[in-house]
Amino acid sequence: MTRLLVLASVIIFGIAELLVIRFCFPEHFSLVLMIIPAYFLIFAVILLSLISHIKRKKIKPGRAFSLLMLFNMAQMLVSFTALACYYIFSEVKDHTFLIAFGIFYFFFLIIKSLCSIRSSSVNQE
């Protein structure tokens, strides 16, 4: 159930964000924006497989927390590096991509937190 919730929320939010930009700010829409939902979908799959690994191996809570924090740091570093490369090497200096990415990143943080809370409450039972 958690898997479906995470994947569906990433897909639905990605479509909603693209539609808002497409219809409310059509001058800022570009096909490059479609990379954002795919990028976060990849991270959602990695997160779900990490949580599945933690549950399957019955990893202690302290180590599980460390693994999740390591995942968060890795995602942040990869995201910042990708954004910096996009901004430096892209000929387009429009900030729409950066703003849309930031909004999606904030949304994904909320989803990750809810997923972690849900999985930790299931492990305690």
Structural features, described:
The protein is mostly helical. The protein is 83% helix and 0% strand. The protein is built from 4 helices and no strands. The model has no long low-confidence stretch (mean pLDDT 86).
Please describe the structure with a list of short key phrases separated by commas or semicolons.
elongated; 4 helices; single chain; mainly alpha; 125 residues
Short synopsis of the structure:
With 125 residues, the chain is mainly α. It has helices spanning 2-24, 35-57, 61-89, 96-124. Helix content is 83%, strand content 0%.
Helix content range? over 70%
In angstroms, what separates the terminal alpha carbons?
Answer: 17 Å
Low-confidence stretches: none
Gyration radius (Cα, Å) is: 16 Å
Mean pLDDT, to the nearest integer, reads 86
The best one-word shape is: elongated
Strand-residue proportion: under 5%
- The total beta strand count reads 0
Structural class: mainly alpha
**Major beta-sheet overview:** none
Give the H and E element order.
Answer: HHHH
Number of helices, counting only DSSP H or I runs of 4 residues or more: 4
